[in-house]
Amino acid sequence: MAKGRDTKPHIGIYGRRNHGKSSLINKLAGQDIAIVSEQAGTTTDPVRKSFEITGFGPVILVDTAGIDDSGELGRKRVERTIRTLDLIDLALLVVAENQWGKPEDYLVEKFRSQDVPYIIVQNKSDLMKPTGEFREEVRRITGMELIEFSAVDNYNTEELISLIRRSIPEHSYKIPGLLGDLVNPGDIVILITPIDVSAPAGRLILPQVQAIRDILDNDAVAVVLKENEAGTFLEKSGLRPALAITDSQVFARADALIPHDIPLTSFSIMLARFKGDFSTYLKGTPKISTLRDGDRVLLLESCTHHVACDDIGRTKIPGWISKFTGKHIEYEIVAGLDVLPRPVSDYALIIQCGGCMITRRQLHNRLQPAIKAEVPVTNYGMAIAYVQGIYERAIAPFTRALTLNPD
């Protein structure tokens, strides 16, 4: 299952084998995107498909294996099914034939423990409608009402779509502005974007594009420059930008080039405030100074990409931290949303990338085990700024906005 590559809201379909999960997906999507069979266990691994909810927008449907799968292979399929909860914004718990038991109790417990909102769908209602006793049992166990559904006679399809639309958390699709509280109409924002071996050929990276779009949405002016042009531009133009944003890899150079009366931050820190738990990052970053010989530091990259010889996560950040601390530190890196190689409590520090390729919920879920275990967490850009001595300047635009807008 491809992971962490789409920021649309994710809807997971869960339940026992042969309860019609795939038929439900096909009906919602209006096309045959999931294999339907009378044989239980047709869906063996989670499968993601994109479709449009009329009046709402694009979503990703995640079809999962039956929670009651058996045998050694079945156990592994169930594990993969549960792992998808890290990606999900809304779960549909599919039941049928008025059955409720340990599989459903287990799923509800998992939804609650991971704070995943869910809807209970009684499927195959053309064959057996929910009894009053069953409705009451579901209400007693979950505190929720179930909705009937039938893929055969199209019963309640529009009602279910409407309920999905109302149940998806607002933060999953209403994306707050990146910079709206920092810039005003007519302001100039300069974006320092190095073009080096790690830059994708013929295009800008996603955070740079997102910043440009947000600046334009706020009726401000975006000026895009390479790092060797920034000083000359300011000198010749005489302009005083309201904000400068740099690639973290050239933070030190940007700090020297941009006058200190102009606020300066990085694309990664911009994303840290936008998607991450910024207050937790603020507390975790100074822990770099307390690292000791033999400590393990985990770097989390939420996408996969070609690894260059001077890769930011695998080479540059470890080098900068080791030089700053003077300690012998062990570094591990995990790309995508793969399982960690060891318990999270084994790490002295976790450094998360900006997370431009995953949803806010996925990033939140990725870091929650570390936060619960009280392992310090920071962000690529904040860690780089800290070890290069420009941390206070780099976070100032956002801490100032946090002070002015505490909500």
Instruction: Provide the succession of SSEs.
Output: EHEEHEHEHEHEHEHEHEHHEHEEHEHH
Tally of DSSP helical segments:
14
**Shape, per Cα inertia axes:** elongated
- Helix content bin: 25-40%
Strand segment count: 14
Structural class: alpha/beta
Low-confidence segments: 1-5, 33-44, 305-309
Distance between the termini: 37 Å
| CATH fold-level label of the largest domain | Rossmann fold
Query: Please, how many domains?
Result: 3
Name of the CATH architecture of the largest domain: 3-Layer(aba) Sandwich
**Strand order, largest beta sheet:** 2-3-1-4-5-6
CATH uppermost class of the largest domain: Alpha Beta
Q: CATH superfamily of the largest domain, please?
A: P-loop containing nucleotide triphosphate hydrolases
Q: What are its keywords?
A:
407 residues, alpha/beta, Rossmann fold, 3 domains, 6-stranded mixed sheet, 4-stranded parallel sheet, 14 helices, elongated, disordered N terminus
Which SSEs are present, and which pair or pack?
Blueprint lengths: L9 E6 L5 H9 L17 E7 L3 E7 L7 H13 L6 E7 L5 H12 L4 E6 L8 H11 L4 E2 L8 H11 L20 E5 L13 H12 L3 E5 L4 H8 L5 E4 L4 H7 L6 E3 H9 L2 H7 L11 E6 L10 H14 L4 E6 L13 E4 L7 H13 L4 E3 H8 L3 H14 L3
Parallel strand pairs: 1-3, 1-4, 4-5, 5-6, 7-8, 7-9, 9-10, 11-12, 11-13, 13-14
Antiparallel strand pairs: 2-3
